[in-house]
Amino acid sequence: MESRSGRRRLRSSPQIAGAPMEVRPGRRLRSAQPQLCSPRGGGGEPDHISFLPQELLLLILTLMGCAATAARTSVLSRRWRDLWTHLRQISFNNLAPSIAAALGRVRGPPAAAAVSLLEVRIPSSIRHPGPVGTTATRLLRAAVRLEPEEIVLSFPWGVEFQDRRNLVRLPCFQRTKSLMMERLLFYCPDGEFTALRTLSISYGLGGLHSLLPRCPHLLVLSLKFVNDGFGLVQNGSISLHLPLLQELFLESSIMYADAVDIVAPLLKRLTVSFGTYKLVSSFSVSAPMLEKVSWHSWYLGDGSIVRFGRWSLQKLWLHTGNTQGQLPSSLHISASASNSSWFTSNEDNFAQEIEKHLVADFSLLELRLLKAGHVFGALVFHLLGITRISRGIQRLKIVLERSR
């Protein structure tokens, strides 16, 4: 028999593992705190998470950031089994061969609402033992039936684009409204992207010339750091004729084209930025509805491409379309002077090159001159003699900098 004093001592025993313990005669020790049941729902308290509404459970899976990780929750219980196949935002962080098959299990229209996002972002830290083109093509082919509204494809830096096995065949997504591709070698064989409104390509390679004609309703086009292997330059020229386009962003570290021709009757915003080792013969922009322009060019090499006496043209920036209270529409020209005497003056070359870039009107002319003891009056008068400049200029600002 157990003494009363013994029972009292046992009742006053310290807590174990942070939970208060109580003892009743003839019963086992148990915790006063509720126990969490096993993931499969056997024993203990109810699995409160699994009893949440499906919308909340899908939100939890979405926040995981990867469909492959979300698919692993199927082992938790029957409630979670294949729940991930109802996701409307599908993201992958790798290109395992099983991804295309897994994507085929996702429930798409008409059984459910259209997938809002299909995202494949492969970090540069992940290494792929072989070419990724075949796997990526299979994944995209499996995604066609899901009719995603937005597609994001981002490949790592380590992919060898010179290997044609990394070429991705881009199928036609007729209901996709936004398409973004980074570091992707691709081509588009057939079909039209009839719903596509926004196309963004960065560090791209491949068949832009085959894709753009298949986007008849494109409103926004962004091309960043493209090169001559990308398909942007055809027969030595960049020619963009887009009847419905409203915004165009073109950014390149080096301009490879001999001429640029842009025809966009509804274009409202134009952003162009590039460097060049040579003179581009012509820039033609036909956009009567243009409201905002940012045109930035700089000259690479030894600075002798465009000269006026000892002055060489370095940078040119045309900026318009500012709102009230900000800086006015302006043209910024940077030039530097050299002490070398072998340079010869080429006034026509200097004026003609600047006129090529005057695709919009402006009211402020800012000159930033890096001089080495030389006078600059002749250069200023030469610039003011350019018809397109003298016609609209209202303010002149000169910033003098001395070379070290």
Give the tags.
404 residues, alpha/beta, F-box domain-containing protein, 17% helix, 9 helices
What does this structure look like?
The protein has 404 residues and is α/β, with parallel strands linked by helices. It has a domain at 296-403. The protein is 17% helix and 28% strand. The chain has helices at 4-11, 54-63, 67-71, 99-103, 133-143, 208-211, 347-356, 377-384, 387-392, and strands at 21-22, 30-31, 89-92, 117-121, 150-154, 168-169, 178-182, 185-187, 198-202, 205-206, 220-224, 237-241, 247-252, 259-263, 269-276, 282-286, 292-299, 307-308, 311-320, 330-337, 364-371, 395-402. A hairpin with a 7-residue loop joins strand 1 and strand 2. The longest helix has 11 residues, at 133-143. The termini are far apart. Mean pLDDT is 75; it is low at 1-41.
Task: Compose a concise summary of this entry.
It contains nine helices and 22 strands.
Low-pLDDT windows of residues: 1-41
Structural class: alpha/beta
Distance between the termini: 100 Å
Shape: elongated
Number of helices: 9
Major sheet, described briefly? 14 strands, mixed
**Approximate helicity band:** 10-25%
Task: Determine the mean pLDDT.
Answer: 75
Rg is 32 Å
Tell me what portion of residues adopts beta-strand conformation: 25-35%
* Secondary structure: number of strands: 22
